[in-house]
Amino acid sequence: MVTQVAKGSGYLTAFKIVATLNTLSVLFQAVTAGQLLSGASAGSHGMGALAVHVLGLAQLVAAVLVWRPGRGAGWPALVGLAILLLGFVQSAVGGSGVLTVHVPLGMAVFGLSVWLLVWAWRR
After folding, report:
1. Are the C-beta atoms of residues 71 and 84 closer than 8 Å to each other?
2. How confident is the model over 97-119, as pLDDT tens digits?
3. Which residues contact 28 (CB under 8 A, 6 or more apart)?
4. What's 97-123 look like in SS3?
5. Chain centroid to CA 50
6. Is-above-0.85 flag for pTM?
7. How far apart are CA 71 and CA 1, in angstroms?
8. What's the CA gap between 67 and 82, in Å, rounded?
9. Comparing C-alpha atoms, which of 28, 24, 5 is closest to residue 16?
């Protein structure tokens, strides 16, 4: 549920923008991961991880703003927190080379990101 306050305040618009950028950054990570399998360098994948972390934090902040001052739903903030935390764990295990955990976590982060994106744009 999104109230008229959340819609009229601009918080929801900000959330839509950040959710879109976050989902695109996670998708970029999947593309660069595929390129790693073809022998490409890890530079773009590593820089993409930074973008995922920064945008994950921005998405969490935007979700909290939709929830608290905007009087919108609170669950997107919890999902945003999960995305942020899973992203950090995924980055840590990916850096240590544990791909059996890294890849499924990436899929979970992508699925949660798409879920928030669809929710935001259906409002």
Report:
1. no
2. 999 999 999 999 999 999 999 99
3. 48, 51
4. CCHHHHHHHHHHHHHHHHHHHHHHHCC
5. 12
6. yes
7. 9
8. 16
9. 24
Residue range 8-61, pLDDT digits in tens: 679 999 999 999 999 999 999 999 998 888 888 888 998 999 999 999 999 999
Written as one string, the DSSP assignment of the chain is: ---HHHHHHSHHHHHHHHHHHHHHHHHHHHHHHHHHHTT--SHHHHHHHHHHHHHHHHHHHHHHHHHTTT---SHHHHHHHHHHHHHHHHHHHHHTT-HHHHHHHHHHHHHHHHHHHHHHHT-
| Residue at 116: amino acid letter | L
